[in-house]
Amino acid sequence: MRTNIEIDDDLVADLMKLTGRKTKRQVVGTMPCVINFSASAQHGSFST
Asked: For 29, which DSSP code?
């Protein structure tokens, strides 16, 4: 399903550099994984 979002272009550019993603779509598609990882780490459920 497609949806339209407004996201700061400078932020996307920074995230593209940080993640190595080449398109805005790739950056946005990566975010649920990053958010889940971050939330797991903050709640102590991340195991190394």
From this structure: H
